[in-house]
Structure formats: structure tokens, C-alpha cells
Amino acid sequence: LGLALYASSLCTVSGATFLYHDYCVIGAGPAGLQVAYFLQQASRDYIVFERSHAPGSFFALYPRHRKLISINKQYTGKSNSEFNLRHDWNSLLSHDRRLLFRHYSRDFFPNADTMVHYLEDFASLLKLQVQYNTAIIHVTLEKNEQAWNGHYFLLTDQDRKNYKCSSLLVAAGMWVPNVVNFPGSEYVEGYETVSINPEDFAGQTVLILGRGNSAFETAENILGVTNFIHMVSRSRVRLSWATHYVGDLRAINNGLLDTYQLKSLDGLLEGDLEDLAIVKDKKGKLHITLRFYLENRNISAGIDSITLPQDELDNFATRAPYDRVIRCLGWKFDFSIYNRSLRMMPGKGNIKKYPQIKPSYESKGTRGLFVLGTASHSVDFRKSAGGFIHGFRYTTRAVHRLLENRHHGVPWPSTVYPITQLTNSIIKRVNEASGLYQMFSVLADIILLRENATAFEYLEEYPIGVLAELEMQTGRKAHSGLFVIIMEYGRNFSGADKDVFYYNRAVGEAQHAWQSNFLHPVIYYYKHLPTEREMKLRPPEWPLPRPDAIHHIVEDFLTDWTAPNAHILPLRRFLENCLSTDLRNFFAESCFLFAFTHQKLPPFCQQGYLRMQGLVGSQELRHHAVQAGLLQDYTHTDFSGDRPPDSHDGSQEQLMRDHAIPVRPLQHLVNAKDE
Predict the structure, then answer these.
(1) Contact 377/353 with Cβ under 8 angstroms?
(2) Is the distance from CB of 372 to CB of 32 less than 8 angstroms?
């Protein structure tokens, strides 16, 4: 039987033998292992190709100075595992509690070697199907109408072995160094090879090209031994606490900003690197000039024949010669292995280092080819955390759910609740969910309303970029309206030039919740599923089209949205206004009286009391309700008269009037209040 199964997995195309799998994954980094885990849990046929002898080979070399900038918070004061993932930026998702990163390191910023060890354990303990020492060097297409996507993917490795799959998941990351070519660029050392021993820079003057975390990491390592360090880049420095983007400069690496602003010789400059030129003098010193000074001149003739900027401007900023120039410009995606038939094209502008993909993480050029992990960051570049483990572990799970529905008929996971649980369900998720919290403005919880709003279906962490395709992508129906729950920062609070520490920066009153600056939940209500055209025409910087109604839950200093008056009550009233119903909870006595005095009961009474469900009464509970003014204490009341007590008539009339429930003449008998 084993031989027969093996033979069935082999295909022959034009005389070449191809080993077939439903899913091929390129790369055994964090994203590759994460999708492998989900495929294995679903019992799918897959294989992961890894060019190195172990998973996570990128982390075996980078970052060069070995300190990660992804936080590893040991304590949060909470035992909720989902909440704790909000502050664990290194763990991958799995059912195995041993595979939480806090069991591997107690450092707030862990060592990269620990990440390598963690990924090795993740692959081995979960028995993931990874084929090591296999470098895929060519990928092309084979048209076939019987294939899932109308074609198969044909892969070839370094040993000329061939593989065939129906769906290709690219999780190879970004590992090709960004290089800028200009006259004299041959004198530049790369971040990937430069020495990390500070003593090698003692007494030297250094110029660093770039202004990201790798550039500042390099500067931080040699700050105390150099004469001075200059740093030049096309754009101004972007601080992560101002932009709220974790890929911008982190505080752990920004020591050079201190020495620059406090005038301790180091400095930052802005300029287009392609306009620069480097000239080496006889002593081996490197001089910075501009490219146009070298036009029609022979650079090999020596520095004496070349005009330098300081010859015309004697206080030119970089007039002092440098001992070393280091390139720290990040990485880009490797497009070289993909045949033109796949139409894997680079993006445009500031995302040209990434392949072009849709908001569903599927390639724009080829159906069935999905990009995962860091290389998928074009969807939310400089907006959210999709380029980092604590973000793409959730987008990878979303891609797997899309594939399960498309190829295997497994709808997006959902839970159906009675409408009375709507407020509680939202409050629970915004206080616990890690995917919503990390992938703010990208992943959203979707609430699909059932007919007559008697129940709802809850879908977690769906990519809002493909909201218009929700029914097709999830296998769920949205006929009666929907709520979309996402997390957002204030519209004008994030930016490289923003002062995020200004006085009165926080909002505390519920009535001003729409002005909240810090991360907070936002609920969009749509009577109908937005169309593709509405998604394209949404206002600038809006994650979604204009809704029929919108509600901001006011920001909270503790990110704890459970305050009854500030958070829960405004949310409940918003939901009630959208649904034209009453979402409060009532005691059985109130439901009993409503049943005799009103034509329509609140949903809580319909779905609870009338079905013989609800809270079992006790003397302690009744005493608490009386003390809180929720029930009348009949044990000390004189009923000798014809008319029952009416001390609560006014409040009950107001309760009924607020929700427009028709009242019969017996309303003076009703004696219920809000729970």
C-alpha cells in the first residue's frame, strides 16, 4: 500500500518526474512553519522546502548584533493566554503550551540565537513536514483545467529534482540586501558582512548609509569607540513611538539621536544616496562628493583632479574624510527564481521591495500563489504589524482559512449566539483578542446578523481588505446586515512629524470617544455588505467605506474596556439603535409583568424567560436586587389597599418610553428596572 501511495504521488511531465503535493511551502522561517502547522492540523498534503539545514536560517545571521527588537513580556497580571499574546511578539500559534517563547527566554528583548532554537523545537515537536537542504531555484506553471486553480506549480531544486503542487505558499522572507550603485560604491561595506567587533572601529570615523533599525543597531554597537558617526538617508528619521509602526526606529537602538541632538559629534543627514559619490585618497580615506562633480572626469585619475563640494562651500557638512562607509539599507524579495509565466512583479514606490499581492495575500498575477510572512507586508506597510511575527502569525492563519474554504469546502470558523449576547461577545473580544490588537486596521471581527436580528454569527480576524468578497471567501451569508469590529489609532495621531506626548493627548469621556488617539475599538455597522466599488472609493486613510453607523469605544489607559458607564453602556445603546431592539437583561419578575402588559417582549425575555431559562432565584440574590433597587421588597409591604405599590412607576415609564415598547393600561403594575 505504501508503494502504491508513493507511486500515485509521482507525476511525469515531458519525461521529467515530479513529486506531487497539494501544497508546497517555500521557506521554513516563522511564516513557513506557521502555515505548516495549520496545514498539518487540517490533515492536508503539504511539504515545506528549506534551503538551509535547519529552520529560521535568517535568524542564524540577523540581526548581526543578535538582539531582537520583538518584545517578550513575561508578566501581564493576566492568566488569559489570548490576552498575553498581545505582549508576546515571538511565539507562533499552536496548541502546545510548551511552545510559548517565554519558556525559552526571560529577556525582554531576546537573543536571536534563542529564536533559532525555538523554531527548531517548533518544527520538531510538532513533527512538521520540512525538507531541509533543498533550495528551490526555479518555479513555473503548467496549464491544466483539472487543477484547483487552472494550473499546477512546477518547482525545481538545486539538485534538479522536480516537484508539482496545486497551491504555492511563498514564505521565503526578505533576504536579498538592498544595494545602491553610485560612483565609489565598491568602497562600501555591507551590513551582512561588516565586523561586529567594536574594537575594529576604535578611533575611526564612520559613515552609515541608511536610517532603519539595522543602521542604528550598527551605530549603537560602535558608538563608544568611534571618533564620530554620520548617518545619511533619503528620508528623515521615523520614530516608532510617533508613527505607531513597530518597523520604524525603536528606542532600544536610538542612542545616536542623543549624541546628535546633544552635539556630541555624531550627526544625521538627509540626501538621495544615488546622488552621492565616494572618492578614495592615497591614505585610504574616503571622501564624499556628489555625482555631478564626477561627470566627464576620470575617477581613477586621483582625488586631486576631482572637485569636492567643500571646494565651493567650505562648511560642507561631510567635508571630513571617513575611514569606513557601511551600507544598512535593509532587504528585498528575491524575484529571480520565478518564471515570467507567474507574473510575480515588484510593487511600486515605497513597496517596490515586496511582490504585488491582493489584500487576501494572493498574488495579483497568479491564482493559487500566496505570499506569507515578511514578504506579504505590502498589504499593511508602515500601518500595522504584518511584517513581523506577532502580526503575520494571524494573517497566515487567515490565509489558511481562505484556502480551507476555497479548496476543501470548509467554511470560515464561526459561532452562532442569541442576540442577547451581542454586547458581551464584543466586549470579550476587544478585551482579549490578540489578532485584532496586533493587526489593527487590517484584521477585523465580523458579526453577521440573522433574520429579524434574533441571533448573530461571529467570525474572527477576517482581512478587511476583502470585505466585499466575504460571502465567497468564507462560505458565510450576510443577508441581514453586519457589524465590523476593528482596532484603530486616532486619524491624526500617527506620523514622523507628530508630537505624541502633547498635553491632553488622551480622551477619557465617552461622549468624545470619536476623538480617541490611542488604540481603541471601533464598530462599523452596515445594513448591506459593502461592494467592491465602495471599498475602492472609501475615504483616504479609512480602512473601510463609510458605514450606516459607527461607534468608537473610548480609549482606555489600561486597555481594559470593561467600565460599565464609559465603555459598555454606550456600546449597548449603539447596538440597540442599529437593531431597533432592547438588549438589556431583566429579572424574571420583570419578564413576567412584560408578558402581561406588552405586545412585544425584549429579546432577553423572549429567548430566556419564555423558554423557561434564566437565573435561578435565591434569598441572597433577591436581597442584592432589593438593595440595588432592581426589585421591590414585598416582604415589608402592606397590601391591605386595592392598589399595589407604585413607587417605581416613574422609572418604569421612562424605561418603556426610551425603547418605544407599546404600553397597555396595566402599566402601573410593572415594577422592573435595568439589571
Answers:
(1) no
(2) yes
Whether 185-329 and 19-175+332-402 are alike in CATH topology: the answer is yes
Cell of 370: 500566496
Structural contact between residues 215 and 235, judged by C-beta atoms closer than 8 angstroms: no
Q: Is the dihedral of CA 482, 488, 490, 492 positive or negative?
A: negative
pLDDT band at 625; cut points 50, 70, 90: confident
Q: How far apart, in whole angstroms, are the C-alpha atoms of residue 203 and residue 195?
A: 15
Q: Are 471 and 529 in contact (CB under 8 A)?
A: yes
Break the chain into its structural domains and give their ranges: 19-175+332-402, 185-329, 413-579, 588-628
Among 3.10.290.10, 3.90.1150.10, 3.40.50.2000, 3.50.50.60, name the CATH number for the domain at 185-329: 3.50.50.60
Vertex 570, ends 567 and 574: CA angle to 5°?
A: 130
Q: Note whether 429 and 460 are within 8 A (CB).
A: yes
Q: Beta strand pairing status for 443-449 and 205-209?
A: unpaired
pLDDT in tens, 399-439: 999 999 999 999 999 999 999 999 999 999 999 999 999 99
Cell digits of residue 447: 458579526
Rounded Cα gap, residues 224 and 390, in angstroms: 33
Tell me the residue type at 408.
Answer: H
**Which secondary structure element, helix H or strand E, spans residue 429, and what is its range?**
helix 422-432
Q: Does CATH place domain 19-175+332-402 in 1.10.1040.10?
A: no
Question: Other CB atoms closer than 10 Å to residue 203's CB: what's the count?
Answer: 8
Return d(Cα 320, Cα 207) in angstroms, integer: 10
pLDDT digits (tens, 9 = 90+) for 105-118: 999 999 999 999 99
**Burial of 520 from C-beta contacts in 10 A (0-12 / 13-18 / 19+):** buried
